[in-house]
Specification:
The structure is a homotetramer of 390-residue chains.
Chain A lengths: L7 E7 L2 H16 L3 E8 L10 H7 L4 E5 L8 H22 L3 E5 L3 H12 L4 E4 L7 H13 L2 E4 L2 H9 L7 E3 L3 H9 L10 H5 L13 E4 L10 H15 L3 E4 L7 H15 L4 E4 L4 H10 L2 E4 L6 H6 L3 E4 L12 E4 L3 H14 L13 H11 L11
Parallel strand pairs in A: 1-2, 1-4, 2-3, 4-5, 5-6, 6-7, 8-9, 8-11, 9-10, 11-12, 12-13
Helix pairs in contact in A: 1-7, 1-14, 3-4, 4-5, 7-11, 9-10, 9-13
Chain lengths: 390, 390, 390, 390
Amino acid sequence: MRHQSRRRKIAVVVTYRGAYARLKTFLQAVRNHPDLELQLIVGASALLEKYGGAVNVIEADGFEIAARIYFVLEGENPVTMAKTTGMGIMELATVLDNLRPDAVVVIGDRYESLGIAAAAAYMNTPVVHVQGGEVTGSIDEKVRHAITKLADLHLVATEGAAERVRRLGEEKDTVFVTGCSSIDLAATSTKDRTVDFPGLTQQYGAGPALDLAAGKYLLVMQHPVTTEYEDMYEHIHETLMAIFELKMPTLWFWPNVDAGSDKISKGLRVFREKYQPSFVHFFKNMPPEKFYKVVVNSACMIGSSSVGIRETSFLGVPSVTIGTRQAGRERGPNVMDVGYDRTEIVRAIRSQLVHGPYTPSTLYGDGRAGERMAAILADTQLKIEKRITY
Amino acid sequence: MRHQSRRRKIAVVVTYRGAYARLKTFLQAVRNHPDLELQLIVGASALLEKYGGAVNVIEADGFEIAARIYFVLEGENPVTMAKTTGMGIMELATVLDNLRPDAVVVIGDRYESLGIAAAAAYMNTPVVHVQGGEVTGSIDEKVRHAITKLADLHLVATEGAAERVRRLGEEKDTVFVTGCSSIDLAATSTKDRTVDFPGLTQQYGAGPALDLAAGKYLLVMQHPVTTEYEDMYEHIHETLMAIFELKMPTLWFWPNVDAGSDKISKGLRVFREKYQPSFVHFFKNMPPEKFYKVVVNSACMIGSSSVGIRETSFLGVPSVTIGTRQAGRERGPNVMDVGYDRTEIVRAIRSQLVHGPYTPSTLYGDGRAGERMAAILADTQLKIEKRITY
Amino acid sequence: MRHQSRRRKIAVVVTYRGAYARLKTFLQAVRNHPDLELQLIVGASALLEKYGGAVNVIEADGFEIAARIYFVLEGENPVTMAKTTGMGIMELATVLDNLRPDAVVVIGDRYESLGIAAAAAYMNTPVVHVQGGEVTGSIDEKVRHAITKLADLHLVATEGAAERVRRLGEEKDTVFVTGCSSIDLAATSTKDRTVDFPGLTQQYGAGPALDLAAGKYLLVMQHPVTTEYEDMYEHIHETLMAIFELKMPTLWFWPNVDAGSDKISKGLRVFREKYQPSFVHFFKNMPPEKFYKVVVNSACMIGSSSVGIRETSFLGVPSVTIGTRQAGRERGPNVMDVGYDRTEIVRAIRSQLVHGPYTPSTLYGDGRAGERMAAILADTQLKIEKRITY
Amino acid sequence: MRHQSRRRKIAVVVTYRGAYARLKTFLQAVRNHPDLELQLIVGASALLEKYGGAVNVIEADGFEIAARIYFVLEGENPVTMAKTTGMGIMELATVLDNLRPDAVVVIGDRYESLGIAAAAAYMNTPVVHVQGGEVTGSIDEKVRHAITKLADLHLVATEGAAERVRRLGEEKDTVFVTGCSSIDLAATSTKDRTVDFPGLTQQYGAGPALDLAAGKYLLVMQHPVTTEYEDMYEHIHETLMAIFELKMPTLWFWPNVDAGSDKISKGLRVFREKYQPSFVHFFKNMPPEKFYKVVVNSACMIGSSSVGIRETSFLGVPSVTIGTRQAGRERGPNVMDVGYDRTEIVRAIRSQLVHGPYTPSTLYGDGRAGERMAAILADTQLKIEKRITY
């Protein structure tokens, strides 16, 4: 009888605010599944207020936290990024040794994810990789595929990604196209599109009141490209000048902690002090449900976040993707790519404003990925031995 | 003019005795190359006397050591193996930050290698991977291909390996077949095959005097399979009983430090105390030059070390490979595969003894890999940006 | 009403076999106290089979383990000892952050203890130090008093120790003379002095059967002195030669993990192979209850362990203390001090054999320290602010 | 002959901007001493631009850096502070193992200093402690005296400090009153008191031009008290409101990285946004020579930095010291102590403004400490064995 068998313990490690948004429906599905037990580990920048203190949102959402681990080194440069990876492994090894999960779930291509996958692999714990097989630029490209090679089960967003994972030598029966669970939350959060946050700017940013009516504002989210560490300051400057030229109300989100994020932050501060652009509102964090409402109503999303490709595709929001960070990732027709050049950026945004909303696409999912992923974890055989298929 | 350009600084990290043997001719070639500067980093078990203190051999060979890093956690179990990986990253990040090499060379598929590759990748230092593209079982299989995905330049041993690295999505012009530099040392060390080590057993092992004439003794080297951590003790027991049944003079080398090596060591100790087999001589370490003389004269090499596939192939020494650790690796006709079963092992060794030496093969190299590798490092463009080729 | 108030959570960190023996009655008293909740953390060599796997004994005794932390670096030299201290802090910080105790108890003067005290102090958790105020040589002397300065509550063994802690500038009402809880276990374990371990030597050591009748054998326990790291091998050699000269049945316990323990181990192994002294029986570990029976029946305890001063004093066992490790520690009349010199050692042992058992002393406690300590933890105000009293 | 003997290698670890200011003349004296060789290690917040990037100033001053070590964990809370201590030990152990100094110099009472002292002590390297024996509140008080107990040589600022170190059980011939080397730099930097920094506010802060004429402005430097972690935000708020009430031109320096510094920073930012006080100029860092000119000309120094006690005493600058952080430290008549209360703070500042400059005192040194300290390091016997004197 099912209820008598031991439930599988599924450890999920959330290390930054974006990961939580992407995993939320999956986490709920695991928690609610009769055959699964969720062991939620919160660490790295997800614990730090400076980066939005995702941990508070997670607790407010009613999740029980099995362990908290601090392991981000100060510096936001390549040395400390490497050391953070190492320290993440050390911390997670202790936690896994004490929690003894049946599988560990990692998402994406960040350095913490590589550390988590490595720790779990060495501890003979099956590694489940979410969002593998995608293509981008930068160090993320190396890390994502390295995690694929360490992982035992692959829950990917698109058919293209699945094909790539298989070509990387993974066995066919370990690769599942589930769609991306970030789409789930984007879908449910935008059923009601009304953005009515009393005191939004008071709470989350500075500047005059903001009209959040659909199509009235831009949204910027630009993350560092760690392999272009030296040029980061100039890259962000181009985006800033483009926005300054457009003079439209703009919501600007601070970057993730990464090598280079200090340079981006510095760029933002210098810009703010110099130009005092009252039409730009800066945000550190926002609960994902509110965030998606803000996305769906924006006239255009700009920057280098994967949100500008994944979620905007599903929501039909025009997107301008800057630089190399997302290069190679599958994208819908709503995305225009430009270089680190203010003229190009301005021209693309104007073109998107003219175009307006796109037809929504299910390229990255249909909004039901989370439960699909949980079901696979409950039903699939979990193993740790594998061999390249060629 | 060549002499005016800055020499490329090549950091090589040696973490265990076997790695030094495999890299020695390469290290010499880098040191002697007019356009290269060697930064030799010695760490992990290569610093520990308990595992043969490779550092002493390295210094005796005249190499200058740029940095020493201790980072092996006690325990020899999956938790400490993971933690060691993490700590290796942290240590290496500091060292690389202080040495600022132009490229970092890692070899093989051990956990330290993954840590090194990750640290270098995050520090935007080109990663050169030696011995990628091979196929085996166990966690090594995961780690080897993960390192390939983190690496920027691939110096592989065989055509088969090169093909596999390319199929993993690496660009063609970053993959070079150089042969394996371990063959270099095997080749030069065995030009004179005389094994005349006065006091060999006094120095390195216990038991009655050993006749090292060609074909008169067996050689065993069995490493743990970390994904079979729980069964290790029984696995080694089968090999021990096989050797006990054959009652031939045997040189037995202690295992590497790895999850499970304590279980193997325990197996060896219990066996030694119970059976007091005067014909088995245990060794912790041996300078590689002596080691290869001992290999080339052995009647058969037994166990799970890659030496039993690579070097024996070149030397034409009969080999019996036990279990899953080397499963999938390309092999010459001199290798017989068996399971963890004393009867199978005994039968295979007897069959090899009847056959005697094999025709040498250059499958894993022609003895000139080291200088070829150094030349590539001097002449090839070093870069850190890459993207999967499909 | 008492049962409604929250129980104080008392975290105790056990890092080696000796610490468990010393704390066992205290741990029981905390577990049984209605106002206290025990959070037992087991780490370092207490987790390693190589050092006696104290964790197994702890679990067999019915204690629930709140967290396990591995943090011993391989090497047993000064570098790795320092790194182990650092890693202990890192690990413990995570554990304390997750367990949130009201106080942390550390014992003695080992490097792990310093790390624990530092971690707790920085985390604003009151630090309770057991066995402060004593005097010895070596690095222990530095570390013990440094821990006193980090600690908020002092549970000391003797009046002399209490006076020393107060002179170190600690406030009087934070210093309590409880006696040493190691005496508790020595007391209860030796109520019945019969040593009747069927198959003792089979289980725990090698060699011919051992007559454990009172007064028929010697007991040796010599730990490294880390500040004399370079001379360790010769120091142990003198003790070995003294025992070899006496040719009495001898139980020899392997040393703790410390810088230098590899040198002692090597000394023991070389000696064993060279002299094959059938009358010396080597032991890695023994449950403390059995150990104390073995102590009380021994003709003389020899070496540098504090057992040779504390417990032997209470048990009236003649003791010969070698070298600087225990120099300065208060001692009863049963202790003779000698240098690292085989002639001195032999002469002292012979003199002790002539003397025979001493009158028991309560210098280090009366056998009821554990419950006294627990009561203080339940009743005393716990605070973290303090200032030197002069 | 002197020049033939090997020079003593003196490792000095600088971990934050204030430490460099305090040690600069000592570092110069070591570098210039014929019998000493300086091994300058720069780590922790001294490497981070966010905290003033002291490393750039150090290099601009012509010092060669022997090693850089990153080890500050993000979070600025008790957990990460503890972990940073641990990681500092791990990093420093590697560096010391590679540099092999004859002595390690640590200053003060910060967590990095405890880690450095512990690492050096375990590595059998003599520890030289600068600024021991002083009295303050907070965790610093615990850590300072713990470092004294780990240290082998004590270079203290005042006779009172020397007496305290001796009472802590240190041998008399290891305690030297040298004065505080921070006074040296204060003395030389203020020989010419002219503050004429073209573009000071452009370079270092925001706001309208600042008149730096003597007596025309206030200077604030308030660091967190880690044991009052929870109340930090309110504490800083009181100081802010006091300054806001006074409405005098004010130079405000950001706090050190410590548990609580994020709360202080947040307080500063909220205040700045809310009140937009054009008369307050915020600074992250300033070369010490400029800083001391700014101090000597200030009408009053306010906060909890030890500068408000040490250097102001020598410079005769009125000082208002807030809260518990400096409680107990010896002070001259120029210091007024107040609680975390805006009314008290305002009243004390006004009283100091009325009083004006004080007669300079040599309580903390005469301006020649650096060379005195170097001479002691060159001439004193360095040893690692010690025992408490009572």
